[in-house]
Design brief:
Strand order of the largest sheet: 4-5-3-6
Radius of gyration: 17 Å
Helix content: 40-55%
Number of strands: 6
Oligomer: single chain
Shape: globular
Structural class: alpha+beta
Number of helices: 5
Amino acid sequence: MKKSDIDCFNPAADLSIVNRSLPHWIQAGCLCFVTWRLNDSLPMTVLSALDSEIAGLLRDHELDPAVDWKAELNRRDSVARGKVHWKLFCTRDRFLDQGLGECHFKHFEIAQIVMESLLHFDEQRYYLSDAIVMPNHVHFIAAFPDEEKFLSQCTQWKRFTARAIHQRLNRTGEFWQVDQFDHLIRGPE
């Protein structure tokens, strides 16, 4: 993949969808917005409040949170789907931005481990456009040559940084939440 191949989502191009606990849409060369969060960034009490707020949001859009609301949402037109997805994203992001958990990244030397890892193979395995390390989560925009590179690189980053940070903090246990939130960037705006 050359830097000139990087673009926004192209609905006419090949696309892979990998379903884990969240769906991951992957398109070769497409810029992808990714969020990772620390394992303790949303404690169970906060997750319960988040689930309740999301259920209310879904009901406001005439979606039943007790059934397969994602299938119902997928039957709606793209504008309606986009509005709901954006509201879900903003709700989750608002909870993340409360800075809950131990917030290991508030310490520069810990945040630097993540940033240096993201930059390490830039323009070799992927193209990193932007990245920011928040106190308890990370956002970045990158393009990957294919599905395999996207999934394996994210796993490698998380594994390496968890090991390095655990060593620095002299601790063990889960560091990152298992899955990540990501979406393909649909346009320059």
